[in-house]
Design the sequence.
């Protein structure tokens, strides 16, 4: 009888815990997957909430749902592990992202990603279909060790293998005006590369403390915020010297635009060192500006694209500089970006925010003549 009561109490405790934690907390992964956990905690996946990402917070602050104190419609992709995600996604409900709710602050958690069973494709945005089996995760490691803490399925999940596990959130987002606010290439593959192979490359360090390996899949998620150096092999820069001018060629060898979010602005900086002096040439910017009635607008208000000079998928862009290169010159080319277009800093009240105002140097090359 005592044993029965103990089991009964444990059973109901488990149910209660699942109501608080629809997915196992990422902290549970730390003991065995220390390398992966440390990478994850510093990533944008772990810091996707308004309380952790000041840029997202500045946009959310102006969102009609936030102003009306209603629901967090962004939660589908920014807090998918939330214990009240269904309310966040349902019109008429009230469900805001709370700092004190651990499931809200879990971001795109480890358990959430590894329980994506399939993806339902929709016109406005896709939906991740989650496995109903708790702690039975999907992975890609062929020769894995059975874990005493969770199951692992490495076969029969094409989305984890081909990287499409990312397109549930990163494929496209259509607003109520029919404008595709943010989009990648839904096919998610170019010359054999995909989301995972580029943004989650193999790096040194064991996959777990139980199963020692030389390398593991990087879980810091290389992107515009962090670890963009991992992505430099997919963009080439070259320079063509002509008689009275020169051309800088940028080859974006990816299946999507260089930067996807309409807040971003890419910048090409070119300078020439001549006789101990530096000559700075005019900066070239690449951006996609969305708006309404001829003016820039927030993603939920925008009805059209006002300007799009962003480097496109698999595009080779040639930029002509009306400047004559002389023998002995050293030309330095820098391609980078701002996470927030400088023109949008003041409206978003981000003028003094370092992540928003800092120039992220992506690729730098020098050419000697």
Sequence:
């Amino acid at each position: 009888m005592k044993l029965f009561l103990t089991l009964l109490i444990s059973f109901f405790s488990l149910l209660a815990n699942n109501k608080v934690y629809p997915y196992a907390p990422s902290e549970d992964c730390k003991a065995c997957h220390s390398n992966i956990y440390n990478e994850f905690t510093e990533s944008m996946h772990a810091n996707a909430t308004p309380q952790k990402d000041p840029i997202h917070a500045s946009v959310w602050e102006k969102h009609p749902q936030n102003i009306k104190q209603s629901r967090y419609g962004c939660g589908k992709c920014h807090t998918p592990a939330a214990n009240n995600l269904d309310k966040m996604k349902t019109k008429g409900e009230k469900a805001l992202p709370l700092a004190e709710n651990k499931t809200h602050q879990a971001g795109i958690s480890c358990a959430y990603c590894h329980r994506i069973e399939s993806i339902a494709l929709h016109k406005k945005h896709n939906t991740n279909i989650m496995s109903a089996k708790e702690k039975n995760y999907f992975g890609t490691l062929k020769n894995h060790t059975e874990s005493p803490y969770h199951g692992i399925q490495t076969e029969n999940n094409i989305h984890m293998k081909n990287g499409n596990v990312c397109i549930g959130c990163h494929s496209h987002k259509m607003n109520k005006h029919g404008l595709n606010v943010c989009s990648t290439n839904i096919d998610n593959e170019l010359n054999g590369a995909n989301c995972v192979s580029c943004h989650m490359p193999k790096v040194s360090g064991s996959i777990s403390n139980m199963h020692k390996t030389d390398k593991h899949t990087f879980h810091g998620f290389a992107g515009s915020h962090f670890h963009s150096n991992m992505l430099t092999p997919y963009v080439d820069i070259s320079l063509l010297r002509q008689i009275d001018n020169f051309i800088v060629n940028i080859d974006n060898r990816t299946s999507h635009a260089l930067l996807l979010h309409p807040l971003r602005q890419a910048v090409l900086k070119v300078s020439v060192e001549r006789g101990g002096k530096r000559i700075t040439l005019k900066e070239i910017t690449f951006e996609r500006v969305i708006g309404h009635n001829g003016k820039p607008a927030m993603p939920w208000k925008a009805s059209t694209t006002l300007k799009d000079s962003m480097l496109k998928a698999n595009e080779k862009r040639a930029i002509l500089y009306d400047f004559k290169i002389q023998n002995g010159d050293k030309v330095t080319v820098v391609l980078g970006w701002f996470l927030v277009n400088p023109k949008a800093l003041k409206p978003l009240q981000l003028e003094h925010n370092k992540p928003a105002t800092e120039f992220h140097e992506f690729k730098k090359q020098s050419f000697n003549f």
Observations:
- The first strand starts at residue 116 and ends at 120.
